[in-house]
Each structure stands twice: as structure tokens, then as C-alpha cells.
From TrEMBL:
Belongs to the HesB/IscA family. GO terms for biological process: iron-sulfur cluster assembly. Gene3D superfamilies: HesB-like domain. Coiled coil: none annotated. It comes from Cryptococcus wingfieldii CBS 7118. One of its GO terms (molecular function) is 4 iron, 4 sulfur cluster binding. This is FeS cluster biogenesis domain-containing protein. InterPro entries: ATAP, HesB-like_dom_sf.
């Protein structure tokens, strides 16, 4: 299309009328936007740790009591199941001269508050997960930090051939599992659960294997004796 200016008779550029814009669709109701997805394997990892001290691990859980929470003894009885030494050697992951810890040393003290929190965690898990009898609180140690070691905690279904299994007796809750190497650095320590204004957390305290005053100022690592 060619047009001329009425004032000076100069030719104007051909301009194509803009295409008609497509109508804007109305927003869908919120209820229609929500979708559901099937998760075959639920994530078992806990939220990232809040390292307030070398002995603290936050699980980001509510401090409210689980329904029908049974009374926990002042000193809960803990059944310790040791791994099979033959299975460990057959696995070949550790040295050939590996030995199990003496039974009187292979334990963690578990406070009533920690047992109560394990009961709460158990009460929130789906029945099909619990029926597999694999879910546990894993407590471990890894090399790292400026003082040599740091504690690890995680809710997991993975088990190792060298795991010690510690089950509080008389209550329905998931067990604690600790691998052989980690237990050598944790034996005699106390697993506790504390509730504070800023949140609740599992923590390891009174570890006989940790050097007194050997925790790093950053609150992450600790030093072994």
C-alpha cells in the first residue's frame, strides 16, 4: 500500500497494519494449576544441618509430641546387634586384620529425649516404608574440617555390612545404625535431642574419644584424642 502526504505530495513508506493480537487467555483457577506427581522412592535425607556446634545436627522437626507417645525410661535399654565379621572380610572393604569392637565398648548412650524424637519420626513415616525394616537414623564420622573430624547424621534406608544396629527396647521407633569405623570414634558418646527457641536438633555430646576443648570455633569439626 502506497500513500502520499497531503501537504507536500511526498511518498510515504508502505506500512502494513499490525497483525491482530491473540486474545489473552484468562488465568486458570489455582485449583487447576496444582498437579500431583508420584515419587517412587521418597527422599530420606534430612534437611541441611544447622551447625551451631560440633555436636549439633538439626533435623528441622516440630517439637510437638507424637500422638500417644509412650513414657520413655530414664535410662532406655538399647539392644545392640553387631555386624558379622565374616561378612565384613568377605566384602573386602576393610583391612584383612579388621576386628569388631569388644561388646562392652560397642554402644552409644541414647537419652530419653533422643528416643522420643525417634518415636516422633517413626510415627510420621508411611507404613510401607516401615515394613521394609530398613529405615534408621545413621550416625557417623567423616574426616574433614579444621580439626580432623565431623559428625554426620541422616535418615536412611541404606545399610552397610559393617553396621552396628542399636534398637531402643520397649518402644516403637526406628533404630540407630553406626558403621564399625565411626563407632570406634563414637563409643561411649551420648546421642541427645534438644529443643530450643531456634529449633530442635539431634546432637552428640560427652564423647570420650574427643579431645577436651578440641572443637573448632567454627562449630563444625572436632579433634580426636
Amino acid at each position: 500500500m502506497v500513500s502520499f502526504c497531503a501537504a507536500c505530495s511526498r511518498r510515504l513508506l508502505s506500512v502494513r497494519p499490525p497483525a491482530r493480537l491473540a486474545p489473552v487467555s484468562r488465568p486458570r483457577p489455582f485449583s487447576l494449576l496444582a498437579t500431583s506427581r508420584r515419587v517412587d522412592t521418597p527422599l530420606r535425607a534430612l534437611p541441611p544441618a544447622s551447625y551451631r556446634s560440633a555436636t549439633t545436627f538439626s533435623i528441622g522437626s516440630s517439637s510437638s509430641a507424637a500422638p500417644h507417645l509412650p513414657p520413655i525410661p530414664t535410662r532406655p535399654n538399647i539392644k545392640v546387634t553387631a555386624p558379622s565379621l565374616a561378612a565384613i572380610k568377605e566384602e573386602g572393604y576393610l583391612d584383612d586384620d579388621v576386628k569388631l569392637l569388644p561388646p562392652e565398648e560397642a554402644f552409644l548412650n541414647i537419652s530419653p529425649e533422643a528416643v522420643q524424637q525417634l518415636v516422633r519420626i517413626t510415627s510420621r513415616e508411611p507404613l510401607d516404608i516401615l515394613q521394609r525394616n530398613k529405615l534408621a537414623l545413621r550416625v557417623g564420622v567423616e574426616s574433614g574440617g579444621c580439626h580432623g573430624y565431623q559428625y554426620l547424621m541422616d535418615i536412611t534406608e541404606e545399610r552397610g555390612v559393617d553396621d552396628y544396629v542399636m534398637q531402643p527396647e520397649g518402644v516403637h521407633c526406628i533404630p540407630i545404625v553406626v558403621d564399625l569405623t565411626s563407632l570406634g570414634l563414637l563409643k561411649g558418646a551420648t546421642l541427645h535431642h534438644a529443643t530450643e527457641l531456634i529449633g530442635s536438633s539431634f546432637r552428640l555430646q560427652d564423647n570420650p574419644q574427643a579431645k577436651e576443648g578440641g572443637a573448632c570455633g567454627c562449630g563444625v569439626s572436632w579433634e580426636a584424642k
